[in-house]
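Reviewers asked in the last cycle whether our approach scales beyond single polypeptides. To address this, we selected a multi-component target totalling 684 residues and predicted its structure end to end. The input consisted of the following lines:
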Amino acid sequence: MADAKPRLKVPKEAKKGEVIELKTLIAHVMETGLRKDASGKIVPRKIINKFTCEFNGKPVFSADLEPAVAANPYLQFNAKVEESGTFKFTWVDDDGTVTATEEKITVA
Amino acid sequence: MQTMTRRQALVLGTGALVTLTVADVSPLLATPAEADAEIAKFTGGKAMDQGKISIDLPEIAENGNTVPLSIIVDSPMTADNYVSDILVVADGNPRPGIATFHLTPLSGKATAATRIRLQTTENIIVVAKTSDGKFFTDRKQVKVTIGGCGG
Amino acid sequence: METRKRNTAIMFAAAALIAIVGGVTLFPMHAPAQAKKQAPLALDGAASVTPWKRYAGWPTRDESMFNTLAKLASPPAPKEARKVPDGITGDAANGEKLVADRSRGGSCLACHVMGPAGKADLPGNVGPDLSEIGNAGRDDEWLFNYVNDARVYNPETVMPPWGTHHLFNDQEIMDIVAFLKTLKAPAKFRSVLDDPMKRPAPVETRDNLDDLQNPGMWTIDRAKDLWKAKGPTGQSCASCHASEAALKTWAAGMPKWEPRLNKVLGVEEFVYRHAKATTGESWLMQSDENTALAVYLRFLANGQPIKVDITSPGAKQAYERGKALSGRKLGQLNFACTDCHDKSKAGLKWIRGQWLGEQRGQYDHFPTWRTSLQTVWDIRKRFQWCQVNIRADELPPDAKEYGDLELYLASANAGLKMNVPGIRH
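The resulting structure, written as structure tokens, was:
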């Protein structure tokens, strides 16, 4: 069974105005809804369909995902940081479950 | 002689369910026309320019289950000139849609990277929309390899 | 159900403890100091699911009529070529379909470029390019027999005996010959990638130790929890192994000849037998727990050069057996390990779009995450899968023949630094 724990690589510090790279991943099977199980029945679709990233409450980057995104969806993007604060990440499952986590960064 | 416990049977049995081979997928594939329809929805039918987009994909994917994709769009990403959305579609998958990325000036750079599933050798088409309402596009082909004897 | 299983496990653990009290120290930290302590092992019973049943989702062919690593059964090679009556009458169009048909044992395109067959889509180059064989002056009888059983012309051939091993019937071979006779021009590749002589060998560039690249790394978190959890005897791994750092070189010396069992033990079998004899846990080979711990124990030895013993008496014989087994022709396709993984044969060539590596470099990254299957495989599962796909019956994971083969393979990788978990397709 996959753990739903997200994994992140976010710098802990940056200079003011620096554009940093963020790497994110969440363990998720990303069931396409096209696969058949051992008895020939379609396994229903169940994916992470949305990812969002905010910094100090303002949107930075988000993604709408389809079943063609690989299992354990990995998303890498950039953010320009002008002040210290908190990144908030959310992942939304087809079934409505939202997984959220935060990372702080010091910007000098 | 230890007989197989129910738990061990479950471990063996779920081997089939857990394997997410692309080969198990429905053989019906979307067409390039369906990919174009997705693009038209995104652009509202507006014309697209070539250029500004750099797509990083392997020439050959050893298997279609997890193919790394990286996109960079040339843009200053300032408040009055930034990439707001990036559409990614494929023309040989069961369905054309892959992902849509939404960016803001806080993104700093117009980049997005992920890993995608490819059913067969096909084209990945990227369309970028800028804050002033323009569209840019580029595409790249990935050859999904054919295994030897099934190993 | 849980209680019954637990009681069974406790009874089994107690029985195992009684069985091994004869010569083995149970809890090293309580025993008087010895020059070389033997790790406690459960010496009875199998280390894997018994009776062995092939994994669901794997090909279900019964290949009992052909060689396995444990038994010889294949029909003998014919002593001479078959006489072919006056010319071949065959359907070249059907022949063109057959040579590209992956369901017929990999197909000819796995090893040969063949002109327009299969749209020249990623053919292999284990065997010669046959695109102009129709002009090579070969007669029908020669072509028929080469496909039927190439051993009558070349006893060292890698070619499967398509006729003798019932992969194609006579009419199908004649159809193939009819197609071969039409091949008189070089293949036209749609892309340089399709040409196996120009295709670049794949290079693994992913960082296998990055947990955002390799889900195989997540099993280490699981292993660390298992390490601390108390088993039915009230002991955990940590009870005796307070410092995992002390195990820094252990896995680099595996697999190892085990005189108490008269076989070579790999890490996975060791984990089962050692846990059973100490914590009472029953972590059968290829279970999630066993695989997680196998990854972890080898991960602890990352960076250490692989160095296995092949000189002490039992180990030397096991090594010789393993070497011989790596040359044994197996299954309906009649391939030996060396046929694909020795550069004097098909090693460093392409089968269809798949690169064949040499033995050296094939062991240092096991257990490995497999992206095509979204799971971690140990080396024994890789052996089993190879066998099933060359149409040979696999053995249970704890088969002594796999131990011999693993020892031979590990010694071919001597000096390479452990790098686990790997990430591969």
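The radius of gyration of chain C is 25 Å. We regard this as preliminary and will revisit it once experimental data from Aim 1 are available.
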